[in-house]
Design a protein that fits this description.
Blueprint: E1 3-6, E2 25-26, H1 28-33, E3 37-40, H2 50-59, E4 63-69, H3 77-84, E5 88-89, E6 94-108, E7 114-120, E8 123-127, E9 133-137, E10 143-149, E11 158-159, H4 166-177
Cofactor: Fe(2+); Ni(2+)
Pathway: Amino-acid biosynthesis; L-methionine biosynthesis via salvage pathway; L-methionine from S-methyl-5-thio-alpha-D-ribose 1-phosphate: step 5/6
Family: Belongs to the acireductone dioxygenase (ARD) family.
Length: 179
Amino acid sequence: MVWAWYMDDSCEDQRKPHRLQPEQPVTLEQLRALGVHSYTLDADNYETDPALAKIRKENNYTWMDIINIHKDTLPNYEEKLKIFYEEHLHLDDEIRYILEGSGYFDVRGKDERWIRISMQKGDLITLPAGIYHRFTLDENNYVKAMRLFVGKPVWTPYNRPADNYEARTKYLQSLEQNA
């Protein structure tokens, strides 16, 4: 199950937890209000897991691949980690399923504060199109993740500021409607 909290403003290594002191946890309900949804699945049996098949069918996630993020498996590892950690949005939802290892997705809350979401093996997360976010490994320095898409994958990140995109406008409108 994913865990989430408001982050501190430290410039220390991005792979550290960066928990605000005193701690300010973020609930799954608060994440859902931002359009972020999470599931806990059986990562050991992802190829035959009926729960994953159901999620894929219900959400039309027809395309998938698997990425290994580790210094020995990802070309240009350090450069890629820096790119993943730049604040950006996508024009489509971002869906990630952790098959091995662990890492963090950071999302901007309604008040613009960073919320850190800790993900481990078995966690699947969906980030809505238009939400500002970033990704980093944690101190274990390894994650194997499934990437899911509706139709053909689109990999383009739009670094902040990217408020002029329709996906961002629609996202902000959805926050207002859910307030």
